[in-house]
Amino acid sequence: MKIILPQTITAANLTSSNVPETDYPAWVAGTYTLGTLRIYLNKIYEVIVSSTTSQPDVGAVASPAEWLAISATNRYKMFDSVINTKTSKTGTIVVTVLPTQVVNAVAFFGLVGNTINVKVTDPVEGIVYNQSKYLQDNTFITDWYSYFFESLYQKEDAVFINLPSYNNASITVTIDAGAAAAKCGEMVMGRQQSLGVSNFGTSVSIQDYSVKTTDQFGNIVIVQRAFSKRADYDVTIETSLVSYVQKLLADIRTTPTVFIGAEEKPETVVYGFYKQFNIVISTPSISDCSIEVEGLI
Q1: pLDDT of 227-252, one tens digit each?
Q2: Where are the alpha helices (DSSP H) in 131-209?
Q3: Residue partners of 72: CB distance under 8 A and separation at least 6
Q4: Is 239 a member of any domain?
Q5: Engineered SS bond to 32: which of 36, 212, 214, 286, CB 3.0-4.6 Å?
Q6: pLDDT tens column, 125-143
Q7: Same domain (yes/no): 165, 208
């Protein structure tokens, strides 16, 4: 089992993106009236008072508030730690990030497209990593009938681990959707750390935030809302590493982290927080660890 310790992606290290930041006009000093939407520092703000001259980030924390932060702009939604808000562009999304530290893993959530490619380019050695993955799930195509009549399912999550470690290399990501809209809910890059070996017995599920109510006549009304992934990992770790694993998990207790049960099993990849963990020192050589993780929406 591995985790990815994330590095923040901001305008400072997002060196290029083909997604235009034209959701709304940029904020400039002046007077704005109720309902006006403006972009400031890669976020969309809305005026919630009759009029204001405040800068959006200042007005958002004023009392009473004058601006309301709505969301990241389309370009930056894939970096806002919210999977349910997605960067979208017809055809392809192409972004290049220059990390501020060594990065050897990258994960993606909420994907829509046909393929995703990750390329690592060193300024001296050139391209040192270039790998693509298909985002269409055809594992259930088992005979000619299913080949012709079953629908393909979208793989929404993808993980690329064991990227070469270069200090000054840039990472270019291309999500290709053909003539449709390519989308990405979240891109998380960082340094991978191994905790141990994930075992059969690991369980996966979702937390559904939809509302289902029954009126006085017995009619059921369903309001569909978002859901988050959950996993209970069963992990074997070396007893000599128990203190290290305990300290590592303690350090990320308030940090959104990518938990990877197995790279080839996307159902075991969750971006979120652990709710609790428990380590049983079973033998002098190996110990048993359980980690309960709840994903972000």
Answers
A1: 999 999 999 999 999 999 999 999 99
A2: 144-149
A3: 42, 43, 44, 79, 80, 82, 85
A4: yes
A5: 36
A6: 999 999 999 999 888 888 8
A7: no
